[in-house]
């Protein structure tokens, strides 16, 4: 039987070293190359823990043969997603017992090759049936939001856009977004992001979102913002990885589910001003001025945000802590 306790005690007494592709001076990690995004297969039982510390809470025990995706690494420890669970595991035992191997047929290099075939372009009418199928697959047959966004995007002078991800000749996903708010400093609001089920975990959602953000930046958008279900860990992971931070917890946003309001600042944010009348009013009611200013900057509707703050519908956020933590509370698995 595999001796977990002996393994973890030996690990605890070992000095953690920097683990990277460029420098793996540790003889036990020599030759290992587990970059972020690579897929691994466990070849021995491995304990997954909530934190890097070996004293932290045990999440689960991963059995041999299970597939995991690397999200981050620190010393001999890997942060992975495996079987719907996420946490820290050992990359290799101190006694050189091999715990993981690169998954053949799904290597990082092959994933990169797939990503290189991706093209993001504006919606064309021939894409409609494919996008409708993806929408129904991801959000249910009753959701008809995509139809409205396509109508908006087709209108002259529209600030709504639907981008399509195409792999070779197949439609793999879409991103609908809109520029909202002040014309001199708009906010890019991501309406919807969806990838066809068989095309997920290949970086397509990330490329779609990056493309939208780049378009927003070129239009002078101050920030990119969106709403996401609080229980959608894959999407939350993607947004966190791309620099989105938690702004507010919106109750019953989806009817039967709460939402996070997330935001990523863009270069034009520093030029965005707020209505100081609203700031003074909220300050008089006891709200901290700096947090109020930041939250009003982050929203595309300052008056609505001020009203929600005053009514207690949206909690005031310690903006400095949010920015310092970088959205760490959002989770880290990704299947989009």
Automatic annotation (TrEMBL):
Alphabetically, the GO molecular function entries are:
acyltransferase activity, transferring groups other than amino-acyl groups
CDD domains, alphabetized: NAT_SF
Pfam families xrefs: Acetyltransf_1
Q: Which domain of life is it from?
A: Eukaryota
Q: Which residues form the N-acetyltransferase domain?
A: 118-267
> Which InterPro entries does UniProt cross-reference here?
Acyl_CoA_acyltransferase, Bact_Acetyltransf, GNAT_dom
Q: Which UniProt keywords apply?
A: Acyltransferase, Transferase
List, alphabetically, the PANTHER family matched. AMINOALKYLPHOSPHONATE N-ACETYLTRANSFERASE-RELATED-RELATED
Full protein name: MAK3 protein
Taxonomy of origin reads: Eukaryota, Sar, Alveolata, Dinophyceae, Suessiales
